[in-house]
Amino acid sequence: MRVAQLGTGTPEVAVVAGIHGDEPCGVRAVERLLRDKPTVNRPVKLIIANEGALEAQVRYLDEDLNRAFPGDPDAETHEGRLAHELAAELEGCLTFSMHSTQSHADPFALVNGLSETAREICPQLPVASIVDTTHFSDGRLFTTSETIEVECGLQGSETAAENADRLTRAFLTAVDVLPGDTVRTELPVYQLTDCIPKKRADQYEVFVDNFEQVDPGAAFAAADGEPRVAEESFYPVLMSSYGYQDVFGYTAKKLEVVSEATSGSKA
Ligand SMILES: [Zn+2]
What we know:
Layout: E1 2-6, E2 13-17, H1 25-36, E3 44-48, H2 51-56, H3 78-89, E4 94-101, E5 108-111, H4 116-121, E6 130-132, E7 147-154, H5 158-174, E8 187-197, E9 204-206, E10 219-223, E11 226-229, E12 235-237, E13 247-258
Helix pairs in contact: 1-5
This protein binds zinc ion.
């Protein structure tokens, strides 16, 4: 794990990249900040988390770090020990953590419940929506410090790296680390309701677009040509053919739209 800081004093804000080793976009954004060394109004901690997995270009070495929190200093896995160390580094920090996916090119934010902070910050980020993972937060970074995660785009793409850069700067501006103003937009909120398991097969297909409503009776995916049909309507989120080992992704329901009017005063 690499830990650096811009500005002096004890940071209350942190940016984390490389929770997953096969998602290099956030690492580039953090490295760029370390190279550019912008003048900051308040200190920020910058962390590149799973250097071992990044070097090996794999999601994780022993177990998924974003399911390993709070971790344990005596854990048998690399990620179990790392989760404990990372949680200690992030204590007391509002944390911004970057990911990328195989499911969706446009950036979106993920939060564990719509806190005041989430309502305040997310509309200032260049994202298209907010996903509330409340029912699926076990072991995630969310559970150890107040965290806003972002999906920056498609894994390994140049666009995801550029998005990571824009997202990080918008976040740091929204929390007054960087000077300047942000643009506020209205954001729909989707809450994850269920995961969509997939059985062992050689070939997987997904027939629907993420965040586009699927109607009852529609075939939304297939495993070895055998279709999966929606029983009730849902919004697919983080859904892809090969992104996860055991699930296609998640079903979600649309909750509300977070707008300027509901997003209190500037923190
Ligand atoms: Zn990730």
